[in-house]
Amino acid sequence: MKLTISSTNLLKALMDVSKAIPSKSPLPILENFLFVLKEGVLEITASDSELTLRTRIEAEGSEEDGSIAVPARHMIDLLKELPDLPLSIKTVSDSSFECSWGSGNSALPYFPAADYPEIKSTGDDAITVEFPAESLVEGIQSTVYATADDEIRPAMNGIFFDMDVNSTTLVASDSHKLICYTTKDVKAPEKASFILHKKPASVLRSIIGKDVENVSISFDSSSAQFSFGATTLICRLVVGKYPKYRDVIPLNNSNVLQIDRQLLLNTVKRVAVCANKASNHIKLTLKEGQLEVSAQDLGFALAAYEKIMCNYSGDELTIGFKSTFLTEILANMNCNSLVVKFADARRAALILPAEEEAETEKVCGILMPIMIQ
Fold this sequence. Notes:
Layout: E1 2-6, H1 7-17, E2 32-38, E3 41-47, E4 51-58, E5 61-64, E6 66-71, H2 72-80, E7 86-91, E8 96-101, E9 104-109, E10 111-112, E11 127-132, H3 133-143, E12 158-163, E13 168-173, E14 177-183, E15 192-197, H4 198-207, E16 214-219, E17 223-228, E18 231-236, E19 255-260, H5 261-272, E20 281-287, E21 290-297, E22 302-309, E23 311-313, E24 317-322, H6 323-331, E25 337-342, E26 349-353, E27 363-367
Antiparallel strand pairs: 1-5, 1-7, 2-3, 2-6, 3-4, 4-18, 6-10, 7-8, 8-9, 11-16, 12-13, 12-15, 13-14, 14-27, 16-17, 17-18, 19-23, 19-25, 20-21, 20-24, 21-22, 25-26, 26-27
Helix pairs in contact: 1-2, 3-4, 5-6
């Protein structure tokens, strides 16, 4: 292998795919980047066997095609110390390669490309859809925080992509809260679904640039491939059946609170400072035109409450929530005004945008209450 390439462009490409490099792996070869040079294009692959990232970059000069596995940490550390200049990379023996720049060079070991495990993508029966990049990033960001860490029910550890011919809904739940993000921009050729684990979902969100318009998603029963620009992400899907989330969405909660989202979020944060640190319980007391948020920690003689004006219609109601769950939902919604619908103190509350913002805001949340003294 012999090529010349911009050190800055190479570093950017390596940083993009390095999120798939495992910190420690039973397969030492996976702690390397796979370089494949062919017809002037350098393809770079990184993988931890569950998640694979691949990107392509054009070489400024290509003299000899080839493929090698190069140590990830050493390569990135070297490139971080170099200014933007042409970098010459060439193999000099059966086990080492040389990086040369204007005033110096560095010799590094490499491993045979044949030792790198084969990366399997989706099969011939895969379904392919085009997903607007902005909607995909927004959907992941709106739901990934609500995923669980459940060894018994692994399906809850990912985002459920529920695709239909008219719309697509992304769902995440940890049994205490459930978040749905719906977009009509994505219409599948047929009803289909898959569960994307939270790790590749978070990586995908972080590597989709603002200049990306669409992401092509191809998936079958075990794997998914996300392609955009010169980058491809391949990952294994979570195997399992996702709960029937639509069955738990309350449809007839008759006690309705309409309030400024930021006002409620800031109030909950202030009051929660005095909540018990183990339980994080807060209490909401609702009556016509007024909401009182309160918390106390008897063990440390702490207490706080705050009254705020609001638009509330329904029965007088006192209900408890875990403050961390409520603030997570409020902080991850983008609307200015929201509606919270209650049935009673024991059943789930439905949190969604105010009616005038319903067309632009695509997120709704369900939060289970807690028993209060």
